Structures are given as C-alpha cells and as structure tokens.
Amino acid sequence: MYDLVIIGAGPAGLTTSIYASCFKLKHLVVAETIGGQLLLAPDILNYPGFTNIAGKELADKMLTQAKMRGGEFLADRVVAITKNSDQTGFLVKDMSANVYETRAVVLASGTERRKLQVPGEMEYTGKGVHYCATCEKQDFDDKICAVVGGANSAVGAAVELAQAAQKVYILYRGSELRGDPVWLEQITNHPKITVLYNTVIIEITGDGERLTSIKLLTNGANSSELKVDKLFIEIGGVPGTALVTQLGVKMDPGGYIQVNERLESSVPGIFAAGDLVTHEYSIEQISTAVGLGARAGASVFAYLKKIKAPSVWGSSQIPR
Ligand SMILES: Cc1cc2nc3c(=O)[nH]c(=O)nc-3n(C[C@H](O)[C@H](O)[C@H](O)COP(=O)(O)OP(=O)(O)OC[C@H]3O[C@@H](n4cnc5c(N)ncnc54)[C@H](O)[C@@H]3O)c2cc1C
C-alpha cells in the first residue's frame, strides 16, 4: 500500500514527488515520459533561477532531485484508477497490467494537444501537419509554413520557423493576437511573417503523400486556398482528465479539474496539480505547475493525517 501514487512526471508531478519525500510519504510516480512538456521547450527564459535553460536540462535536474529525495519512478501509462475493495483508497492500473494500491492519488498528467477537427487533418498528420514546431527537427529552408493559433506557442513557433522558412503565415480566428508583448514585438514588421486575422482552416488537402495546401475561410464568408509545405497547429491543449471522470471527479466548464485551494478534487483522496487544474489556480506555465506540485504534496500529507493513515498518523513532520 502506497501513501501516494503520482500520475505524471512533468514539473507538477516531479515537484509533488520532492515534497512527498519531504513528508516521508511512501510514494510512486508513474509517467509515460519523464519531463512531460519540458522536453518540448528548447529555451526557457522565465523560470526563476535560470536566465535560459533547455527544458530537457531542467527536467533532468528535477528528476535527479526527486530521486535523491527518495522518489520511486516507473515509466508506463496509467490506464485506469478505481476505488479499492474496502473503499479506503485506490487501485492504479498501468498498461503492463500492474496494479498499485494507494491511499491518495495526485493527477499531474498535463494536457494533450488540441486538434482542429477538420477534413484532412488525420490523413496528413506527420505528413506536413504537426502539433509542435519546436519538436520538428526538420529543414525548413525555403519552405512555406503556416501556424494556427493566437497565443504564445503559435507566435513563438512562427518566430522560430521564420529563421529558415521562406514565408510564415499565422492564421488566427480572432482579431487580435493574445501572445505576451515580449513575443508580439518579435513579429511586428517581421519581413517573413504575415498574420491572417479572422481566419479559420476548413480543409487540409494534399497529394495523398503529403500536405500541399489549406482551404481558409476569412470573416466567415470569403474562402480561399493557400499553398503551404508545413502546417503547425498550436492551439493549446485539452486537459488529460479521462482517468478520473468515471470516479466522479468534477470538471470546470473548460474541462479542467475543479479543485479547492488545497488541490483536493471533488473525490476525497484524489488531488490534481499542474496544467490540468482549473485556471483559477494554473496559468499553464512551469512555475505554476511547480507551485501546485508543492502544495499538492503538503495537502496529501494533511489528508493522510486527517484519515489517520498509519504511516503518518502521529507524525509531527514538517517539510524541510
Ligand atoms: C513547446 C513548449 C514550450 C514551452 N515553453 C515554456 C516556457 O518557456 N516557460 C513556461 O513556463 N512554460 C512553457 N511551456 C509550458 C510548460 O511546459 C507546461 O506548463 C508544464 O510542463 C506543465 O507541467 P505539468 O506537470 O502540469 O504537465 P506536463 O509537463 O504536460 O506533464 C504531464 C506528465 O503526465 C504524463 N502522463 C500523461 N498521461 C499519462 C498517463 N495516462 N499515464 C502516465 N503518465 C501520463 C506525461 O507523460 C508527463 O510526464 C511550454 C510548453 C511547450 C509545449
């Protein structure tokens, strides 16, 4: 019986593990990828303590620290969480059919890439249609690229692509980009970047082997075709909450996990931290994921004391 199983090893899950160790909680971290979205971020400029650090390096540092403090890690995908037989905890099942019993769960499984849901998207995914510009280590020399989206990830992708591409279009359904000023100033008057506002993609077409063009609708009426070699869909993520819907965990209207200030979900013993938590607490950044992870570790300890879990009952442990 574990005190805690943490699902996910992005910054939220890794920090929860570090804090769980501070409270001497017997815990297991199960994660498909160690580092989560950090692995996709080449240059992190806004994480305190580092003027510029590659996401992979930051993930490695967090993992080293979590393991040094006593965290146990397993690389696998969790496929189900159910109540245990006497309803005092949970059973966490992974893809390899291993089952782990635990008194509490912290769900730190982040978000999955949002899809456009237009004809041709599935067919050309990986054949010119991609969901992360920074992850594609391809040669963009003289290519015509389009990026869908209006927030930091789309604007940042456009700037990065424009270093090599012949032309980059940003396609945005709104009338004003939502990126941070630090990103927006980089595209203002950029010779290779053009923003098409009030524009949506209605179809992705190709020659069967690869993407060749996209059909656009502007201002809800005017349709046109744009020849592109690469299309990057950078429209954010969908919270990965499927594992806990059957348990009755409540979501907010955006599909993010509804938690209280102690990061408790609506089901006692299930906590959440990181990008999948309601935006009342998270802004989908590393620093918020880390902060929520720390709080989740402390809250699980308080919960275990409240339910008089034998491993912590009577302990006056405070985090160090
Ligand atoms: C390209 C890119 C650049 C970015 N740049 C920055 C930046 O410069 N600064 C910044 O602050 N933020 C940046 N971000 C955002 C930041 O990376 C995220 O906010 C942060 O990683 C969220 O942390 P998390 O722990 O909540 O989730 P994630 O990092 O998404 O981690 C989720 C974890 O859950 C695991 N998981 C999911 N489902 C399962 C399952 N069923 N079973 C087991 N494991 C599962 C995953 O494998 C992973 O380990 C960037 C994101 C991207 C994509």
UniProtKB/TrEMBL annotation:
Residues 2-291 form the FAD/NAD(P)-binding domain. Keywords: Flavoprotein, Oxidoreductase. InterPro entries: FAD/NAD-bd_sf (IPR036188), FAD/NAD-binding_dom (IPR023753), Ferredoxin-NADP_redctase_2 (IPR050097). Signal peptide: none annotated. It comes from the Bacteria. Coiled coil: none annotated. Pfam families: Pyr_redox_2. The keyword Oxidoreductase applies. One of its GO terms (molecular function) is oxidoreductase activity. This is Thioredoxin reductase. It comes from Candidatus Gottesmanbacteria bacterium GW2011_GWB1_43_11.
